[in-house]
Design goal:
signal; mainly beta; four-stranded antiparallel sheet
């Protein structure tokens, strides 16, 4: 049931591109344009960057865009949703890390998108960020 809630929240937030914030979470693996096999799970690793204010990531949405435009704010088709993600201090990155297994079924150059919904500051102001990387699915 929580998955549905996050999907609708993230879908509606994704429309408000004006509210997109600085990227608080970024991809650190796999490297850009890594080759992955269609239908076979592969790990993406994302890093949470320290924020100046009280900052809490509420949900992460991972999506795919086949041949998508890397400059837009679209999230694409859902690959995974993680509610209340827990980032772990894992080396060698010396940062707060989250590994997420994803599976892409269609071959081709594919953007892997990450949309994050967060609340920040004492007032718990909501915000949203989008970042992406690209893989070559064969």
């Amino acid at each position: 049931p929580t998955t549905m809630k996050y999907t609708s929240v993230l879908s509606s937030l994704a429309l408000f591109v004006a509210s997109v914030s600085a990227q608080a979470v970024t991809f650190i693996a796999p490297p850009f344009d890594t080759q992955v096999s269609a239908g076979v799970p592969f790990n993406v690793t994302v890093q949470l960057h320290p924020q100046a204010t009280d900052f809490n990531v509420v949900a992460l949405y991972f999506g795919e865009q086949l041949g998508g435009d890397p400059s837009n704010q679209e999230l694409g088709q859902e690959l995974a949703i993680i509610g209340a993600p827990v980032f772990q201090p894992i080396g060698p990155f010396n940062g707060l890390i989250l590994n997420v297994p994803l599976t892409i079924n269609s071959p081709g150059s594919t953007n892997v998108t990450l949309g994050g919904f967060f609340v920040a500051g004492v007032a718990k102001n909501p915000g949203f960020f989008v970042t992406k990387t690209r893989v070559q699915v064969v």
